[in-house]
């Protein structure tokens, strides 16, 4: 199956969750990637704070570069009114149905602003689907696979950027995105990415069943 980015003309604004920000920072090419999209990119204040203190899972501590905010590549809005009320709902209640501050702020702001949300975490994606059925969701891979990003970086630099996000930030990859990622970075690099090994093993087993 051929994978293509979900980002489209319908995405007039894009609100990034912490996991997506961390992935993009790990690429070493966050500025050209975000600028290439050609749409307003927003990161809530909650996410900025989460990213700056994120040193879990062995990942290096990263921070959103001040110049991205200063030159307008990224805007940092604060929650207020309806988005603040929705944020309070999303962080309250049972563990199964609540989100961390960054994820909750991303979804609440995107819904209130009629923007699209870039989020990788499966739980947040599930909750978004049930709470905000009209909200457009994309992933980090959708951003990297956007035609404007490929045009801006070129295939070699894009492959290096994706590999960095996979290796350093352990970027999540959905099953339908695996083939595109593996082709981009090369099969020889798949084994070096912990977030790809499970998918690679599953696909190998599927191929064995088909040929047996």
Question: What this model shows, in words?
Answer:
With 212 residues, the chain is mainly α. 56% of the residues lie in helices and 6% in strands. The protein has 2 domains: 14-141, Rossmann fold; 154-211, no CATH class. It is built from 13 helices and 5 strands. A 5-stranded parallel sheet has the order 3-2-1-4-5. The two termini are 22 Å apart.
Quick recap:
By secondary structure, this protein is mainly alpha-helical.
Topology, element by element:
Blueprint: E1 14-16, H1 18-27, H2 30-37, E2 41-42, H3 45-53, H4 66-70, E3 74-75, H5 82-90, H6 101-112, E4 116-118, H7 122-131, E5 137-138, H8 140-144, H9 147-153, H10 155-168, H11 178-185, H12 187-190, H13 194-211
Parallel strand pairs: 1-2, 1-4, 2-3, 4-5
Helix pairs in contact: 1-3, 1-10, 2-9, 3-6, 5-6, 9-10
For the biggest sheet, the summary is: 5 strands, parallel
Strand order of the largest sheet: 3-2-1-4-5
Per CATH, the superfamily of the largest domain is 5'-nuclease
SS content category: mainly alpha
The count of domains is: 2
The second-level CATH architecture of the largest domain is 3-Layer(aba) Sandwich
Number of helices, counting only DSSP H or I runs of 4 residues or more: 13
Helix content: 55-70%
How would you state the average pLDDT, rounded? 89
Shape: globular
CATH topology of the largest domain: Rossmann fold
Instruction: Report the CATH C-level class of the largest domain.
Output: Alpha Beta
β-sheet strand percentage: 5-15%
- Strand element count: 5
Radius of gyration: 17 Å
């Amino acid at each position: 199956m051929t994978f293509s980015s979900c980002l489209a003309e319908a995405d007039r604004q894009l609100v990034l969750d912490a996991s997506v920000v961390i992935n993009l920072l790990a690429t070493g090419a966050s500025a050209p990637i975000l600028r290439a999209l050609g749409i307003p990119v927003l990161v809530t204040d909650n996410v900025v704070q989460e990213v700056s203190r994120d040193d879990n899972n062995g990942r290096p501590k990263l921070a959103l570069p001040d110049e991205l905010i200063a030159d307008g590549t990224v805007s940092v809005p604060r929650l207020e009114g309806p988005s603040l009320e929705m944020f309070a709902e999303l962080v309250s209640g049972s563990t199964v149905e609540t989100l961390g501050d960054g994820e909750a702020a991303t979804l609440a702001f995107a819904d209130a602003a009629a923007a699209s949300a870039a989020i990788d975490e499966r739980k947040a994606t599930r909750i978004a689907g049930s709470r905000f059925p009209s909200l457009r969701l994309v992933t980090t891979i959708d951003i990297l696979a956007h035609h404007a990003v490929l045009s801006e970086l070129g295939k070699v630099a894009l492959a290096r950027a994706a590999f960095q996000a996979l290796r350093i930030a352990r970027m999540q990859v959905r099953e339908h995105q695996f083939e595109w990622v593996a082709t981009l970075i090369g099969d020889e690099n798949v084994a070096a990415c912990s977030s790809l090994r499970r998918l690679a093993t599953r696909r190998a087993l599927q191929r064995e069943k088909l040929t047996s």
